[in-house]
Automatic annotation (TrEMBL):
Annotated ranges, domain FLYWCH-type: 8-60
Official protein name in the record: FLYWCH-type domain-containing protein
Keywords for this protein: Metal-binding, Zinc, Zinc-finger
Molecular function as annotated in GO: zinc ion binding
Source species: Rhynchophorus ferrugineus
Domain of life where this protein originates: Eukaryota
Pfam families assigned: FLYWCH
Length: 73
């Protein structure tokens, strides 16, 4: 599994980088968190990650986009 990096945005919101894609929290319940690609709106990036529990273990990745972090085109 690739490295997963968690950090806070400038607005102090949780963010995650995995496999070159940057994610933000879209929805959260007591047991599950849905992370979506930060380029979801501007570049139609459909990458999504579900994490479960306090361990924040990546359970499922669905990615039909080819827009990694740092690609400005």
């Amino acid at each position: 599994m690739s490295e997963i990096v968690y950090f806070l945005s400038k607005r102090k919101l949780p963010m995650m980088v995995m496999k070159g894609y940057e994610y933000r929290i879209k929805r959260r319940t007591e047991t599950k968190t849905l992370w979506t690609c930060t380029k979801e709106d501007s570049r139609k990036c459909k990458a999504r990650v579900f994490t479960f529990g306090n361990m924040m273990h990546a359970k499922k990745i669905t990615n039909t986009s080819k827009i990694p972090v740092g690609n400005n085109s």
